[in-house]
Amino acid sequence: MKTTSKKGLSVALSVCLIMIMAVAMLSGCGSSGASHAPAPVVTRVVGQVLVQNPGLARITNESAPRVTERAAAQAVGNCSEIPAGYSAISGATIVVSNSSETATTDANGCFSMTLNSNGVSIITATKTNSNHGTTTLKKAIAIRSGVTNEFIAANGQPGAAMTEMTTVAAMIIEKKITNNETNIEPEATEAYVAMIADQEDVQKLKNDIVASAQDPTTPGFTSFSNIDISTITKSEATTNNPIIYNALIAGSPVAQTGGSVTISAKIAAFGTDNSISGATATLTATGVTPITVSLSRTSPEGITYSGSYSFGANTTGNDITYVATIAAADIKNLTGSYATETFQVLQSGAGCGDSTVQAGSGETCDAGAGNTNTACTAAYGQTCNYCDTSCVSHDVVGTRCGDNTVQAGNGEICDDGNTANGDGCSSACQTEDLTPSQAISITLGDDFSCVLFSNGKVACTGSNSSGQLGNGTTRKSLGIAYVSGITSAEQISSGEQATHTCARLSSGAVKCWGANYAGQLGNGTTTNSSTPVSMSGISNAIDVSVGGTNTCVVLQDGTIRCAGTGYTGVATIPDISNAIQVSVMTTSTCALLSGHTVKCWGENSNGTLGNGSTTSSNTPVGVTGISNAVKLMHGGYSHMCALLDDTTAKCWGYNHTSQVGDGTQTNRTTPVVFDAGLSGIVDIAGGQDATCVILSTGQLKCVGYIQEGLGDGTSAYSGTIVTTLVSNAKNAAMSSLKTACAVRNDGTVACWGINNGVFGDLSTNFTSSATPVEMILSDTCGNGIIFPLTEQCDMSAANGTNGLCSATCQSLGGCGNGYIDSGETCDDGNQIDTDSCPNTCIATGCAANTDFDACFNDHVNMCMWMGGSCQAW
Predict the structure, then answer these.
(1) Per the CB 3.0–4.6 Å rule, which of 312, 551, 674, 754 could disulfide with 649?
(2) By three-state DSSP, how is residue 421 classified?
(3) Through-space distance between the first and last CA atoms of the chain, rounded to whole angstroms
C-alpha cells in the first residue's frame, strides 16, 4: 500500500514484515479482529524509520549506535536504501502493541525484533530529543499467516510511509479495538482516512502532529488521549455505508467481433460487524439490455473486488457505449455506489476499411479502399497524411525551416533547429545581424530594469514574478533578454513600486506587460501578461508613463488616458486638452501642458500636487509658480520636479531625505528651487527618496538617499547634491530607495545600489554595489556564460558536439543544457539528480511552480517565492 502526504512537512516511517513462521489467521466477516485470541506465534519484524526533507529535522539531530540486529535488517529487501529527499531517523524507540519487545533504529533507520503475537498491532515510533522533547508516530499493521507485508523503502520510494494520515488511521483503529469492534482492517481504514482528509477534525489532528514535531511547546501527542476519535466519523451514513474507490476497467475498447473486460474496485466497510454481502457492476447503454457483472473478493482478507464479462459480436453497425455503475451492500443493507460518465466500455460497430472511423475500436481514420501502408511525401514546409491498413492515421512532415538541416534549394541560408528570431538564424532561416545596437534609455521598476535600444527593441532583466520582463516566462533573469515582439519602440516606462512596463511604438500604439491586478495594462482585463498586450483604444500616443499600479498616455490631441488603480478601463482625464507630457508617481500624477504650466491630481498628503495644500484631488489642479517648464521628472514616489527653460529645476512634495533639493527635510507643498539654482540640467529622474540630474557636461549628480549609495562611492545619504562616478550620461532612472541606473552617450549602461538582477551583469549572487557596475550588453558564445539576449545555452567547448547546445549557443533540446525547453520545467545546466533540478528536468514539489501566483497558492507543498524561484519554507 502506498500512502502519500498532502503537506510538504511529512514524517515517514516504513515497516517491513517477514514471516518466519506461519501466523494463525483471524476469521469472521473477512477482517482481522482484535477480539479473537489465536495461539501466539513467533514472528520476525524488520522495519525502517525515515524523515522527509525539509521536514522535522529536530527528530534526527541525535545519533544512536547501531543495534545488534543490523545484519538481519540489511538481509530483508533493501532496508539500507534511503530514498532521495529523505533522511533516516536514528535512535527512535520502537514498540508494538500486544508485545513487550522493543527495538531501537540504527543509523539507517532500520530495526528488527521478535514478536510472540499476531492479529492487528499498532507500531509506535518515539523519538526523544533532550533539547526539544518527544515526538511520536504510529501505524497499524495486520500480521497475517502466509503473507509477506513489506514496509521498507524500495526503488527510490519510501513505501507505505507512516504519515500524519496513517497516525490518524491508527488512532481510529485503537478506538475500534477499545470498543471491541471486529471489522478492523488497517489498509481500508487508511483509505477511508484519506477520503475524509478535508474534515476539520482530521485536519486538526494532522496539524497537531506536525506542530508537536516542530515545536516542543505544543501539546502534541500528550493531549491525544483526550480527543474523541469518533468526532471524525460524524454520521452513521459516513461510517457505515460501503465506500467504493479506485474503480478500474481493463479491456476497453472492445472489438466489433467481441472481447472480455475486467472491472475491479476497492470496497471498504466500516462500523461494528459490517462486511460486504454483495458487489456488482451494471453496464447500461441506449437500446441494449443492461448487463450485470458480479464482483468478488480477489483474496479472503482483501478489499479488492473484481469481475469479468465477455461481449459477443456487435451486429448493430454502430459503436455502443456502455456506462458502468458499481454498487455494493453490507450485511445491514447499507449501500454505496460509484458511477461516472467517464467510466465507460466502448464496443466498435464495424471493422477497418468500411470508410467509417470506429473510435471505439481504436481507429483514428478509415479511408476505405484508400487505406495504405505506403507513406505519403510532403512538400517543403507542408504536412501530408495517410491512413494505414489498420486504420491508424499518420502525419508526414516535409523538410522545413527549423529542422536543423539547411535546405538551400528552398532558399534557406541557415537552420539552427528552431524558428525563433534573435538567435542568429531567423524564423525564415535567414542569417541575422546580432550586433547589439546602442542603448538609448533605461527604466526601472520594482527589482527589474528594461533597456530601449536604438533599433526599437527592448530588453529586460531582474525579477519576473508577474511577467514584467515580457519574455513569455515568469522566471527571473540575470541578464537582459528581449521583450517578445517589440521591434519599433520609441519610449519605455516603468516606475516607482511598479511591476509592469509599457512601450510607446512608432505607430503610436502602446503595449504593456507584467502585473495587471488593477487593470494597469489597459487591455480590459486584470490578468497578468508575460508578453506585451495592446492598451485598448490607443493608436496615436506621444508619451507614456508608468508608476505604481497606474499607466497614463498623452495622445496627439493633448488629452490624457489612464488605466489602473482609481480608473475604470482606459479613462480620459478631465480638464486637460493640451498636454505634451505625463509623469506618474506611486499615487499621484502630473502633466506638462503646452503653455509650460503643470497640473497634478491624486494623493496629496505630502504636498505632491504642488498647489499649496495637502488636500487630495481626483481632478487636475494647477501647480503654483510654474510657468516656464519644459520637461517633468521621470518617476518619483511622492515628489515631483520640473525642468525649466533656463536649465534650472524646481521640485515639490515629499522631502523626508532632502530629495526636493533644498537642503531641508521639510515637505514642500509648492515648488522650491533645486540645489540653489543649479543650471545646465538636461534631464532629471526621481526615486522614492532621491533625485538625480544630468548636466549638459554629462555629469550625473544626485541628492537624497539610495540604500547602497548615491553613486559617488561613499554616500548612501546626502542632504546636498553629490557628483556620481558616472560621466557622459544621457539618461537615468531609479527604483524605490534601492537602485539607480544611467545610460551613457556611447550606449553603455551602469547601475548601482541593490542588485537583485537589476544590474544585468549576469551575477548569480546579486552582489550590490555603492559604485556603478556595467550592464552586460553583448557576450561571446563559448565562454560558458549564458547571455539571455542572444544565447539559449553555453556549454563552452561542448557547444556543437554534445547534441544539447549548438555551436551558436542555441538549444538543441535535451535536459542539462541550461535552457528550459518545451516539456521541461527546470534546467540547471547539468544532469545531476541530487540538486534542485532532477536529471529529468521535470521539477517536483515547490520547484515545479514557475510563477509567483502558482507558488503562493501551493499550500500542499507549503511554498514561498524567494530569489526568483519557488522554494519550500
Answers:
(1) 674
(2) coil
(3) 29
**Please, what sign has the CA dihedral across residues 199, 205, 206, 211?**
positive
Q: What is the mean pLDDT of residues 679-693?
A: 95
* Three-class SS state of 611: coil
What gap in Å lies between CA 242 and CA 271, rounded to an integer?
Answer: 10
**For 731-782, how does the pLDDT look when each residue is reduced to its tens digit (9 = 90+)?**
999 887 789 999 999 999 999 999 888 999 988 778 889 999 999 988 888 8
Q: Is it the case that residue 388 has pLDDT exceeding 60?
A: yes
**Separation between Cα atoms, residue 306 and residue 754, nearest integer Å:** 65
Query: Average per-residue pLDDT in the chain?
Result: 79
Neighbours of 618 (CB within 10 A): 9
**Beta-bridge mates of residue 291:** 283
Residue pair 226/168 in contact by the 8 Å Cβ criterion: no
For the stretch 695-712, pLDDT in tens is 999 999 999 999 889 999
Contact yes or no for 94/69 (Cβ under 8 A) = no
Q: Are 739 and 758 in contact (CB under 8 A)?
A: yes
- pTM beyond 0.90: the answer is no
Q: CB atoms < 10 A from the CB of 290, how many?
A: 10
- Asked if 642 and 650 touch (Cβ cutoff 8 Å), the reply is yes
CB count in 10 Å sphere of residue 38: 14
The C-alpha cell that represents 849 in the structure block: 511552480
What is the CB neighbour count within 10 angstroms for residue 463?
Answer: 24
- CA 503-507-508 angle, to 5 degrees, is 60
Distance from C-alpha of 308 to C-alpha of 300, rounded to nearest angstrom: 18
3-state secondary structure of 305: strand
CA distance 30 to 95: 27
Q: From residue 561, how far is each of 382, 471, 522, 583, 586 by CA, in Å?
A: 46, 26, 10, 12, 17
The predicted-structure confidence for 575-604, as pLDDT tens digits, reads as follows 999 999 999 999 999 999 999 999 999 999
Residues linked to residue 560 through DSSP beta bridges, in sequence order: 554
Coil, strand or helix: which one is 426? coil
Contact 217, 254 (CB under 8 A): no
Residues 6+ apart with CB under 8 A from 372: 386, 387, 388, 389
Q: From residue 225, how far is each of 139, 160, 199 by CA, in Å?
A: 16, 25, 20
Q: Whole-angstrom Cα distance, residue 291 to residue 272? A: 33
**pLDDT score for 6:** 31
Rounded CA separation 623/653 (Å): 11
Place of cell 508619451: 543
Return d(Cα 534, Cα 486) in angstroms, integer. Answer: 11
How far apart (Å, rounded) are the C-alpha atoms in residues 636 and 367? 69
What is the C-alpha to C-alpha distance for residues 35 and 178, in angstroms, rounded to an integer?
A: 10
Q: Which amino acid is at 741?
A: C
Return d(Cα 85, Cα 239) in angstroms, integer.
Answer: 36
Residue in 118, 63, 87 with CA at minimum distance from that of residue 10: 87
